[in-house]
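Support case: user asked for a sample of complex input and structure output to validate their parser. Sending the pair below.
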Amino acid sequence: MKPPQYYEGREQTYLKHFFLENYLERVAYIIGYSHPQFVYVDGFSGPWKSADEAFEDTSFIIAIQKLRQVKEGLRRVGKEPRVRCLFIEKDRRAFEDLQRAIKEVTDLEIQVLNGEFEALIPDVLRFCGSSFSLIFIDPTGWTGFGLRKIQAILQRRRGEVLVNFMFDHINRFLDDPRPEIARTFDELFGGPGWEDAVRQGEGREKAIIQLYCDRLRVVGGFQHVTSTRILKPTADRSYFYLVYGTRHIKGLREFRGIERKTVAEQERIRLAAKQQARVRRTGQAELFDAREIPSLDRIFQKNRVVQHTRATERLRTLLRNKRRVRFEVVLGTLLEMPLIWEDDIQGIVRDLRDAGELCIAGMNPRERKIKEHHFLVRDPSGNQNDF
Ligand SMILES: C[S@@+](CC[C@H](N)C(=O)[O-])C[C@H]1O[C@@H](n2cnc3c(N)ncnc32)[C@H](O)[C@@H]1O
């Protein structure tokens, strides 16, 4: 994909592409290694506001280039999975550009469809067949991917979804009193009942995202649903959330791993964007490159401290409800929390063990990492026979 400088003024798009490219690489490799096919569907593919003749700043070209590399990497280790892509675009002009752009691609199997995503669900299902698929939903607003309307693809057993939930945009309209607008939110959330989240005052943003995640989990029958936040380039406010549904803890692990990379990139990119904005405002060049200066203004670091406390509490609650919990369950629960990474969970468990709040059962003395099959047991001073 293009370097960040190329996305000046739309750094949020760079970060979206950065996340997509990195996640796609991992999932395609993992699935391609062990399955005969991998399917990628981009339901709102564009091109959209591309500044590049070759569309290298669009999600579909980024996906094509990355999948090509993954295929090559897999070939080198003796794996030759089929990799198939489906790109859907509603706008006729954009669709023609899309068609032109993919005409020369012969090393991946690509199909393009002109129409509305929701109306093409039967085609998507047919295209996916029984293969593992990642569906990417990157709309321009909040319509066209109503949870109930796309339920059939969400429920595919071998499938994951990545949705760009345009929080900033959605949030501005959620209080709109017009019934026709409220109806569009019923569709987005898969039914009424979202009004309570909107009335939450200070916790409104969290409540809205949580509601969408909860609904996605139920409608799609996902084991794990989580999200990661992309901020506005020069303001400390949310732009959008990438919401993710999966049936596998492995997917969740990969998602958080990519979040970790993206957070580092996001902090860097936003410092530079803020510096550029300052320079434009004051007309004064600055001596140092903001990306090189350690900054106290690292918003995600602050958020991580809060999340760490919450994760510790959540683990305590898990152990209060059940004295003995498999570490895999702890991982699945805590990794759903944004900005909580695997090392953090290992650290939290060790801290509680050192504080005498739990024991790790099944771990042999030479093992350093807690593994999925180990058990965490509350109140180690209690009945040791429970181990
Ligand atoms: C935000 S843009 C996608 C950008 C692209 N994913 C990227 O990152 O380069 C959304 C695209 O979806 C198209 N679109 C809007 N509504 C749609 C619908 N209901 N079904 C399919 N495509 C739609 C728009 O014309 C636009 O090209």
